[in-house]
Amino acid sequence: MDNDLPSFVADDRIARRRDLLADGRELIYFDDADTTLGPDRAVDRRTLDARPATATMRQDALTGEWVSIAAARQNRVFLPPAEADPLAPQSPTNPSEIPSDYDVAVFENRSPSFGPLLEAPDAPRGFDDLAAIGLGRTRTSVGRCEVVCFSPEHTGSFGTLSVSRARTVIEAWAERTAALSALPGIAQVFPFENRGEAIGVTLHHPHGQIYAYPYVTPRTMRLLASVASYGPTLFADILASEQAGERVVLRGEHWTAFVPFAARWPIEVHMLPHRHVADFAGTTLAERDELAVLYLRLLRGIDALYETPTPYIAAWHQAPVDVGRDDIRLMLQVTSPRRAADKLKYLAGSEAAMGAWIGDVTPEQAAAAIRSAIERADAATPVTAEGASR
What we know:
- By secondary structure, the chain is of the alpha+beta class.
- It has a single domain (15-380), classed as HIT family, subunit A.
- It has helices spanning 126-131, 163-181, 218-230, 234-243, 285-303, 349-354, 363-380; strands spanning 15-20, 26-31, 56-59, 66-69, 104-108, 138-140, 144-149, 188-195, 207-213, 248-251, 255-258, 267-273, 312-317, 331-336, 338-340, 343-344.
- The strands form three sheets. Strands 1-2-5-7-9-8-13-14-12-11-10 form an eleven-stranded antiparallel sheet. Strands 4-3-6 form a three-stranded antiparallel sheet, with no helix packed on it. It has a two-stranded antiparallel ribbon with strand order 15-16.
- A hairpin with a 3-residue loop joins β10 (248-251) and β11 (255-258).
- The longest helix is centred in the middle third of the chain and has 19 residues, at 163-181.
- Keywords: Carbohydrate metabolism, Galactose metabolism, Metal-binding, Nucleotidyltransferase, Transferase, Zinc.
- It catalyses: alpha-D-galactose 1-phosphate + UDP-alpha-D-glucose = alpha-D-glucose 1-phosphate + UDP-alpha-D-galactose.
- GO terms for molecular function: UDP-glucose:hexose-1-phosphate uridylyltransferase activity; zinc ion binding.
């Protein structure tokens, strides 16, 4: 195993302010470089119930995959009105999760899929333990799940942020990746954003999440197998191939975004850094600065495809903590089931039951449409580095 984690280089223009919520959960405020907020933060004076017990993982003996049974999540808030938004700053009438006004806030999920325990007698015990197949196998779902609030506003998404605020969120992703990767029992860290009711979001508030898993996820295990079969230059070769083709939608000094050769979804865009970096913690300040601009342009372009906002999942795939760090590169994958203005692609028999995908649009057509939409979005609302943190 290779666990040579990078030393995280923080942007000192983005202040961090650490606190605890009333039940002991960690809360971190990240202040924009151009923040108008003062340094003081209110104390969380709520009286809260004890946190639910850590969930239990069960193994599917047919696939070897592990399923976390987190029953406490069944009662989480579902599409509340603005006056009861649990991610808004607390007010006299709204005892929300965040005591003070903020730019970006990160806190431990009250009802996580993994955690709050990081260590337990029956926690996963490495690759060999998890890979063994048996009936009725269980493990404790140790780990950490965090909520990343992009803004104090009730509505919006990453694409509606300013460049400065986008840069602050990216800084939070990088710092939390470094911190979570160093915790005991953590095997992989995954930042992501679910956007839109068609995706299944339960809160309109602009936010994302970070999962710190106690195992390497099935998708990444398949990727490790692909690298083992192809060789360690897989990501570099994919990037070079896409940069030479017609599916590139955005390219900067440090990042390239493209529709992949074998796209599954009607809207699917991947983005790779130009150099090998295993996760956000290893990115440079210059890479994060450029990403704040390019990522906003990409998401605003995807929204400009149609007259209404596009539902999507934005998934930041990162190398595991202990394996594949020299081979697996940080990669964004944005996917949307939207195949027309008023139509969604549903995963029916072939995709859902057999994992055998059928594409509705050629990747080349999709890339051309997204490039055109980015041009329209750039013309309507230019995104520049002005206001970024460095």
